[in-house]
């Protein structure tokens, strides 16, 4: 009598998958769509475009009729609205995964969170460039209209001023990204973005030691020469210190928190 035994099958080691991840172009497309995927973001976009055109139109009718229309005035009015509202759209998109509880879905399809953050950043910069171009086009249109009602148009525009607006827009968008990635809450990020620099500016008016270093650590004061196209060495040193405090440090902490936070 013989006994038969079934050989024990040892577990096999898992094999690495060769299936490629989500292409970055597709990831970027998704993040671009998220920027305007909510009703709030679309409303802010409409307000931004309508507000820029409204301010430029008011300049046509309320400005001095005896002097030529100033193209730079129309451009500055439109860019003021863009500088204020584009970072809000970026904050809404950055906090969307956590405030709308879609983080599990997002990071399940793309576990490498750094790629998601990179796509968000590039999408935000792309929207910033498009917004600046739209404002430029509307400024040209309103300047032509203003020139028809006044003695011509002065088209003189300094390249350093244009560069200053672009640099400032990039800095504000980066600050919005940093606060959104750090706080993961839309309301908290918006309050911190608008109120923190404002509160610090008020404190410098009452606290002497802060007043002495305000040119270096106050974001509003340190970066204001950039809007005027002032890129001298002293200006850039002061701006670099303020940007490090208000943008770089929150951004690094935000990336660290986003990568390490547990998704529930």
TrEMBL record:
<protein>
    <submittedName>
        <fullName>Uncharacterized protein</fullName>
    </submittedName>
</protein>
<feature type="transmembrane region" description="Helical">
    <location>
        <begin position="74"/>
        <end position="96"/>
    </location>
</feature>
<keyword id="KW-0472">Membrane</keyword>
<keyword id="KW-0812">Transmembrane</keyword>
<keyword id="KW-1133">Transmembrane helix</keyword>
<feature type="transmembrane region" description="Helical">
    <location>
        <begin position="162"/>
        <end position="183"/>
    </location>
</feature>
<feature type="transmembrane region" description="Helical">
    <location>
        <begin position="117"/>
        <end position="142"/>
    </location>
</feature>
<feature type="transmembrane region" description="Helical">
    <location>
        <begin position="190"/>
        <end position="210"/>
    </location>
</feature>
<feature type="transmembrane region" description="Helical">
    <location>
        <begin position="239"/>
        <end position="259"/>
    </location>
</feature>
<feature type="transmembrane region" description="Helical">
    <location>
        <begin position="43"/>
        <end position="62"/>
    </location>
</feature>
